[in-house]
Design a protein that fits this description.
Chain lengths: ~350, ~450
């Protein structure tokens, strides 16, 4: 009997060891990310030393991705798994558990929570289901502030250096280059260049402390400001309503005033009485724009728009959600341009 | 019984505290990490300020004042965060996540219905608290996690039984190999067996109020399909991915050695010998919108009786990429064929070869409402010439994924006179609370 049991267990084990697929990635690190913006940033930092694949479809709600056997298997031989964290992509736990990949389990070097060290907003003081599907670790939509992408890219670079020390200098150089491109996109290439090597860092610090405009004026550099900070100036002070609390980071960076949400409680579609309360608010505040993420029903937004004359802007959150939004930089440009256009 | 109940109550209380603390603790760690990052940035800002003070870049006092003001603001922000952390968390670590499930159901029947285990016990036309379940999940160490599901199960209205519905360890790295070839995982303990689809689902997660007849009759039940049932043996499970030549598909295999005699089809004629289970799944996912899963299952035990059960299953799920929380469609079914050879009291060899199947459809019309149909056809395991059929429909209403109300109707035909021509109205309430993370409804799991 024992022989039979042993055979039942050992034969498949031996067969599996023999069948185990050899890594056919030619020495490249295999990275699996939950969301597509993470895929994009990881590819920018990792360059040709990594292969990166994202699990979620860029058009779908990042909260509600369905883990599938294909995702589990895709992750089973990953060297690095990157999640957004902050209880946004919690479905990743099912994938990581089912992958059977010891290298990417939480706590391993192969598992990275990309948003570590990102200053998180809206930390709840009471964590209860009575508040709806709240995020116990704060608002997770951090990537819509380009300054946070700098931190995320740095986290990815550090982890790649740890996992693949032989290419450490390469990853550091890629990170510096990407940071430079991001700074140029944010402040304009001319301004960053005018300030010299660490100009981007200085500008980021000024932006974080809300003193960029004064600082530039003092130095007579205001005319050189370009990029999103110049383009986004048209959003400064614009009052908007959003379906979900998606845009808090974007709004803080570009001066949008978020006056409320169509959802009464996060994660739960707005009940009719709440829609009417929003209609009153939109009228009272003179709000002209309603932001509705592409994956949410636009029924409530259309209702409010029909009663108030406000304009509904369908927004996209992830890289690759539209053919023309195939980079992070294009995603931010797309958001700024579409919201500005609707406000005109 | 009383002592068992008291023990469960005490455990529940402790685990409630522990479970809450665990979620808060991971949140707290994360927040503290963020705070450290913030402090580091502040220190950097202050250092920059000191160096700039001695350079020609910063000579005007109003600029110094502004910087000071902004730094003060950030310090205030950090103090608020620290305050939030201290209020939102508890100083307990390393405890499992804990969730409680409460399931009430009531039935109204057109004729008297009796408990399968006790033909004198009438169960028709009354409400039941069917199960109270405590689920504990946590990491054991970096290489293993553990699950314990302790349930208080209604014994057809007579009393409540305490049961370890599931209690197992999951090894994510194979000992000695220190690796996991083909994503292999080893599960050891008591668990819902990987035979087909619906057997693996706990009663509170089922899309129906009752277990499909074939699952309840062949795999496991004590009191019939209205009460908690299914096959959850003690044993060991190996799960791994099978390299397969079909492009864009995933093939997964489960191989199990379990204690024999726990399958209902065995009729209690088990013995000390092991039983074996194999399950093969082939799935294809189209852009996270369409998912097709095909499965084959087999069970075999040889001892004082021979029991074999084969199964095939198919599941198709659809959910759109946009407005995913409001629309979905699921269709599926399972077919079972069993064979049970045993020696009866007259020392003659007897056998039964029952066959059963069910199929279902479910459509989600909005965030709140799901509508579905199910048809069952099953030959009785003790006498394969007797057939029972049922057809039913239901509507499930969710306020959120943690609270579900369900209203259903079922008509049953049977060659067993007492079960024939029964119309039943079913009402169910399911409550989920605790540290269970937000997950899509069962159809998206």
């Amino acid at each position: 009997m024992m022989k039979r049991i042993s055979g039942f267990i050992l034969l498949p084990l031996l067969a599996l060891c023999a069948l185990e697929q050899s890594p056919a990635r030619e020495g490249k690190l295999k990275i699996v990310t939950t969301l597509n913006y993470l895929r994009y940033v990881a590819q920018e930092v990792g360059g040709d030393r990594v292969t990166v694949v994202a699990l979620a479809n860029a058009r779908q709600d990042p909260h509600y991705v369905t883990p599938t056997p294909a995702m589990n298997q895709l992750t089973s031989d990953a060297d690095l798994f990157i999640e957004n964290g902050l209880s946004l992509d919690i479905w990743q736990k099912n994938v990581v558990d089912a992958s059977g990949n010891p290298a990417i389990q939480p706590g391993s070097p192969g598992h990275l929570v990309a948003t570590v060290n990102v200053p998180v907003k809206e930390l709840p003081t009471e964590v209860s289901r009575a508040w709806g599907d709240i995020h116990p670790q704060g608002n997770p939509h951090v990537w819509l502030d380009p300054l946070n992408i700098r931190i995320i890219a740095a986290n990815i670079a550090e982890r790649l250096k740890q996992l693949d020390p032989a290419n450490s200098a390469y990853y550091q150089s890629r990170f510096e280059q990407y940071k430079g491109r991001l700074d140029a996109a944010l402040f304009g290439e001319e301004l960053v260049r005018a300030l010299g090597k660490s100009g981007g860092d200085v500008l980021v610090r000024k932006a974080l402390n809300n003193e960029l405009a004064d600082w530039l004026k003092l130095r007579g550099l205001e005319g050189k400001l370009g990029g999103w900070m110049k383009e986004g100036a048209s959003l400064n002070g614009l009052k908007v309503i959003s379906y979900h609390k998606t845009y808090i980071y974007f709004a803080d960076r570009f001066g949008l005033q978020l006056t409320g949400e169509l959802e009464e409680k996060p994660g739960i579609p707005p009940p009719p009485q709440h829609r009417d309360a929003v209609v009153e608010e939109v009228k009272r505040e003179g709000i002209r724009v309603i932001l509705n993420d592409n994956f949410y029903s636009r029924e409530a937004a259309d209702y409010v728009a029909s009663k108030t004359g406000a304009k509904v802007v369908i927004t996209y959150l992830d890289v690759g959600s539209l053919p023309e939004v195939d980079t992070y930089e294009k995603l931010i440009t797309f958001l700024i341009q579409n919201i500005s256009q609707a406000a005109r | 019984m009383w002592s068992k109940t008291m023990l469960l109550v005490c455990l529940t209380f402790l685990f409630t505290l522990a479970g809450r603390a665990q979620e808060s603790e991971s949140s707290k760690d994360r927040i503290i990490e963020d705070l450290r990052g913030e402090v580091a940035r502040l220190r950097h800002d202050i250092d920059s300020l000191k160096s700039l003070r001695h350079s020609d870049l910063l000579t005007q006092s109003d600029m110094l004042d502004r910087l000071e003001e902004s730094l003060e603001k950030r310090l205030t922000y950090l103090e608020t965060k620290i305050d939030a952390v201290s209020r939102a968390t508890a100083p307990v670590a390393f405890n499992p996540g804990m969730t409680a499930f409460i399931n009430f159901a009531a039935r109204g029947d057109s004729k008297k219905v009796y408990d399968l285990a006790d033909p004198a016990n009438e169960i028709s036309n009354r409400p039941f608290l069917r199960t109270v379940e405590m689920e504990l999940l946590g990491a054991v160490d970096p290489y293993a996690s553990a699950v314990a599901v302790i349930s208080l199960e209604n014994q057809a209205g007579k009393e409540f039984g305490v049961d370890a519905e599931e209690a197992y360890g999951l090894l994510k790295r194979i000992p000695l190999l220190e690796d996991a070839p083909l994503g292999m995982k080893v599960k050891i303990g008591k668990y819902r067996a990987p035979f087909g689809v619906s057997n693996k689902i706990h009663m509170h997660d089922l899309p129906w109020t009752t277990r499909p007849l074939a699952v309840a009759r062949y795999l496991g039940t004590e009191h019939g399909d209205f009460f908690e049932s299914g096959f959850n043996p003690t044993g060991m499970d190996l799960n791994f991915y099978v390299p397969n030549p079909i492009p864009q598909t995933t093939m997964e295999m489960n191989l199990d050695v379990v204690r024999a005699g726990e399958l209902t089809l065995s009729g209690g004629r088990g013995g000390s010998q092991p039983a074996y289970i194999g399950h093969l799944n082939l799935s294809r996912d189209w852009s996270n919108q369409h998912l097709l899963i095909l499965g084959l299952s087999a069970y075999e035990e040889h001892g004082i009786a021979i029991t074999r059960l084969y199964g095939a299953d198919i599941t198709y799920k659809w959910a759109p990429l946009e407005e995913r929380e409001s629309h979905s469609f699921v269709a599926g079914g399972e077919v079972f064929a069993g064979r049970h050879l045993f020696t009866d009291s007259a020392t003659a060899v007897s056998s039964n070869s029952p066959v059963g199947w069910y199929g279902y459809l479910q459509y989600q019309t909005s965030y709140w409402l799901y509508l579905g149909l199910r048809y069952d056809w099953v030959e009785e395991p003790s006498n394969d010439r007797l057939v029972t059929r049922s057809a039913g429909g239901y509507a499930s209403y969710y306020t959120t994924e943690f609270l579900r109300l369900r209203l259903g109707f079922e008509h049953r035909w049977s060659d067993i006179p007492v079960q024939n021509n029964v119309n039943t109205v079913l009402f169910e309430i399911n409550l989920v609370f605790g540290s269970h993370p937000t997950e899509p409804y069962w159809v998206n799991k």
